[in-house]
Amino acid sequence: MTYEGWGTPPVEPISQHFVVCGGNALAHRLVLELVEHYEVPVVVLVADRDRDHAPRIEQLAGVSAVVEYSSITDEALRAVSIGTARGLALVEGDDQENIHAALSAQGHNPNIRIVLRMFNQRLGENIERLLRNGAALSGSATAAPAFAAAALGRPNSVAVGGRFLHIAFDEAITADRLCIVADRIDRQDVGRIRLMPEQEGDSAEFVRLAREFGDDGPVRVGGAEVPDPRRPAGAAGPAAQEEATGAVSAALDDQGGVAALQVLPVEPREPINWARRLRWRLLDTARYFTSARMRLVLLIALAAVLMAFSVLWYLSRDFGWTVYISLLDLAGAAQPDQPADIAAGTGTGGAWQRAAQVVITLCGITFAPVATAIVVEALASGRRGQPRNPSAGTREHVIVVGLGNVGTRVASQLHELGVPVVCMERDPQARGIAAVRALGIPVVLGDGPFEEQLRRARLKHSRAVVAVSGDDATNLEAALEARHGNPEVRVVVRLFDDDFAGHFYATLDNAASRSVSYLAAPAFAAALMGREVLGTLSVFRHVLLIAELTVEDGSGLIGMNRHDLEDPGGVRVIAARVARSPHLQWNYADRTRRLGPGDQIVVAATRSGFARLNTVLAEED
């Protein structure tokens, strides 16, 4: 039997270290981020060293110690030297447990930087006010936009200064792009992708032309080249150079695709016109008439009502009165003729009219139960607390498999974009069921085979399947089963393992893979260092961070220009706001202007590039 703290080597006296509490995928990625890119000492507190990602965390080079405690108690915090720690990340457990641990850690070390994972973002904002130096982030909220955008086949965006940054690929790149962020893109080998490649400046082509036609190049007279005595014998002329340039261009084409960062004035919504919505509503009503016998009875009754209506209209010659009396007859509220009225000749008139009213009344008895059932189903299904099933009118929807934190966020974001959504969940107690039910999103519950569950979710009529459960194998099974049932459907899969994801990309087309921990860990690491990341953008399995930095008095950024920031690599300055200026200047052209107090810059950076910036910014601390 293992007791708390047993089997763990004692933590040697250590200070200015970072403590990560958790043994899940996010903790694994966060520790990797801290030791590889920020190069800081890390102590990890796990509940069980033999479960989840704890064994892999323990093998990471740069981890100072892995301490085992079943819960985050005061004793556990003392065991990881919380009193001398620089930062604490709480990335496992529910919201209540993380809040309790954060307040306890603050009691031991009032100046410690605390970052805690919170699903309830509103509660997280209130908790930040209680912490002297803390931030509450949601891993699912950080990663969900990438999954939702991948399901729709478009890149996700990050809001900056009233505009939206997104990544465009190849033919979608426009002339007003901000910068090239990736090249060598190949779906068959996503490991070849190169982020933030070195690129020539805007004047590179003019410099090349000046060298060709100026003092250092040949002189052309009347379209013919005059031999340049300064050029060595055997040197290639323009024709040969052009041929060589073509060969180089062909070689570049073979290197794969390109991705660029662009700006949109508004975030595009998914257009769904009213005609399609009306069609879906009409098809939706068909679920009440699934029985062939019921459809036959209702059609006969409808035909009888129309014939009787025609008789009444022929006899009265008044369309409005005919509609009025027919509706009363259908509801069983018409006043019949009395024998005395017939004898006196004051009745409504004629045996044909009375027969027609009787037919309409009898047919009304047939329609009333069906109408009642439709109203009860529509109004009472939500009150019973049960999620509603997808209807026959569900078309061009996205199926979200798994209603954990991530699945719930993805379904909610797609719903906000106006995209029809159907959710699948095996656990009837999953926390996301109530949330999506409140939005009116259909849910397929049950522990049956994926084939049957996807059929109930109307896979044949769906546009995409997003598998975001916490297990890679389950997600892959759902994706493969979906592709088998509908070869045209787009599949988006949550996968932690990079090698697994590489094989996935190489095997399936019209597919995408994302990792929640890979998307969220850079934001948590930056927050742990006291920096705020506006959002993350994904290039296949790679991540770019978008951050806004303010130059404060004493900051290490003072006196630096764009060359100083960008030349070491991994960083692009995409916008700047000069002190006392109210507007951002996109693609700021002045590369030599040095930053001063009050200036703000917006950067796109790789993980290592942002870590290098943090080293510069640390000088102000």
Q: Secondary structure elements and their pairing?
A:
Elements: E1 18-21, H1 25-38, E2 42-46, H2 54-58, E3 63-68, H3 74-79, E4 87-90, H4 95-108, E5 113-117, H5 121-130, E6 134-137, H6 139-151, E7 157-160, E8 163-169, E9 179-185, E10 194-195, H7 204-213, E11 219-221, E12 224-226, H8 238-253, E13 257-264, H9 274-284, H10 292-316, H11 319-330, H12 339-344, H13 351-380, E14 398-401, H14 405-416, E15 421-425, H15 432-438, E16 443-445, H16 450-456, E17 464-467, H17 472-485, E18 490-494, H18 498-507, E19 511-514, H19 516-528, E20 533-539, E21 542-550, H20 562-566, E22 571-577, E23 585-586, E24 600-605, H21 607-617
Features:
alpha/beta, 621 residues, 24 strands, elongated, 19% strand, six-stranded parallel sheet
Question: How would you sum up this structure, described in words?
Answer:
- With 621 residues, the chain is an alpha/beta fold.
- The chain is built from 21 helices and 24 strands.
- The strands form 5 sheets. The protein has a 6-stranded parallel β-sheet with strand order 3-2-1-4-5-6, sandwiched between helices. A 6-stranded parallel β-sheet has the order 16-15-14-17-18-19, sandwiched between helices. Strands 7-8-13-9-10 form a 5-stranded antiparallel β-sheet.
- Strand 15 (421-425), helix 15 (432-438) and strand 16 (443-445) form a beta-alpha-beta unit.
